[in-house]
Amino acid sequence: MRQGRRALIAAAVLIAGATAAGAAAVEQPAREGVVTDSAPEREFPIPTADSGATDIVAGHDGAFWFTEANVGRIGRVSAAGAITEFPLASSEQAPAAITAGPDGALWFTEPGVAKIGRITPAGEVKEFPVPSGARPDQIATGADGALWFSLSDAPRLGRMTTDGKVTEFMIAGAEDPATAVTQGPDGALWFTEPDTDRIGRMAPDGAVTRFAGLGGGAPTDIVAGPDGALWFTDPGANRIGRITTDGRTSSFRLSHQESSPTGIVLGSDGALWYADAGVSRIGRLTPEGTVTVFPVRAVEGEPTAIAAGAGRTMWFLRPTSNTVATITASTSKPTPIIDTYRTPTAPEGPSGGGSSGGSGAGGVAPDPLLAVPVKLDPVTGLGCRLARVRRVAQVVCRVEVNNAGSVRVRLTRRGRTYATAFKILRPPGRTLTVRPDRRLERGRYRLEARLRNGDKYDIQTRTIVVR
């Protein structure tokens, strides 16, 4: 029966170029960024050290629930900041994404053990295996009252009823897996394909339509907006995207050169809110394109996931700090913010090859690319050679400069940051070692180096495949 269902979906597939003719992406700058005063940020330490807080969602009980991937726990933080942790059967279960289910419980993915978990507000846990053994990634509640999830190692979407029955649907025409999933305003399920820069739609009858993204980006998280469209983050390209239900796209580029919007949610005030891990801000974007940013305590790679509370209160995760934090944005008159970063003088380089490297035992063998001379940009005086090492124990970059400068290196996958490094450089350069701060799942990762020399930039990227 499953094979027949896949055949039906394949026959029903529509290619975005045919169904959305003339729907080319339209990019416009977001209106002038502003920063407003906000209530003091409150942070609440997670009791278990190095918990690997990954995703957060508002629960039906008025609390906020989050996953702790490094220690196999589900956390709950009350509106007053009291945190309770619920251990799973094993610390190796590594819960990832979490959503509020249609039955009052919280549902979460466990990619490491190929299961979907369910936890009640009282802390009772039940787990359901994914029969195919595929790894569930992101999860959302659909319009049909079921749980829908993406699979990190297959171009399929899964559907699970609240009694644990699973059906998988091929994303016909796709070779790479989807990431985020969300219920659309049209009753369909919408999803992102960051590896191929596409947005997908799966109708209730299984028909799939895939639309081209914004171009040169990697759409990551997605949410239904207040205007009948879908809104998504594009962290590598410093922008927020919008797509209508008929596939017309537009985007809003953020003002800060190092912005990296990650999680995005619809607030109760009718605006889109996002976490900006690149510059330690919480952002608010109206459907008309006005952006307001709220600086939070600056920590590299934070904040990440975000959840909407009442009014203008937002909750977000700080995995490096091992805390859950919240701010309440002010409605007072904003004051201008001036970003000191200018537009890059050199365009972003193309992604490199996807070599997976060896897996032999013993020491760590550097990538042969490290031995290749680095070509310096004649304008910026900067150059970088990105490389990976065997066994994915660490990532090594060789950076050379002919002037003093700085480099920031980041390893990401689907909008989530796994490792960062920053150094001030002096000629002739040096080697940077970037060590991931959490276990790497199989899949494609983006290694990005942003080099700076005064007001000049060079951005280089490479794709790393973990098998």
Provide structural commentary.
By secondary structure, the chain is mostly beta strands. It has 2 domains: 2-336, 7 Propeller (Methylamine Dehydrogenase, Chain H), CATH 2.130.10.10; 368-466, Immunoglobulin-like (Sandwich), CATH 2.60.40.2550. Helices cover 3% and strands 45% of the residues. The strands form 9 sheets. The protein has a 6-stranded mixed beta sheet with strand order 25-26-27-28-3-32, with no helix packed on it. It is globular.
CATH architecture of the largest domain: 7 Propeller
**Arrangement of strands in the largest sheet:** 25-26-27-28-3-32
Q: Can you count the beta strands?
A: 39
Q: What separation lies between the terminal Cα atoms?
A: 30 Å
CATH class descriptor of the largest domain: Mainly Beta
Give the CATH H-level superfamily of the largest domain.
Answer: YVTN repeat-like/Quinoprotein amine dehydrogenase
Oligomer: single chain
The share of residues in helices is under 10%
Number of individual domains = 2
CATH topology of the largest domain: Methylamine Dehydrogenase, Chain H
Strand % is over 45%
**Count of individual helical segments:** 2
Characterize the biggest β-sheet.
Answer: 6 strands, mixed
Structural class, from helix and strand content?
mainly beta
Mean pLDDT: 75
Shape verdict = globular
**Radius of gyration over C-alpha positions, nearest whole angstrom:** 22 Å
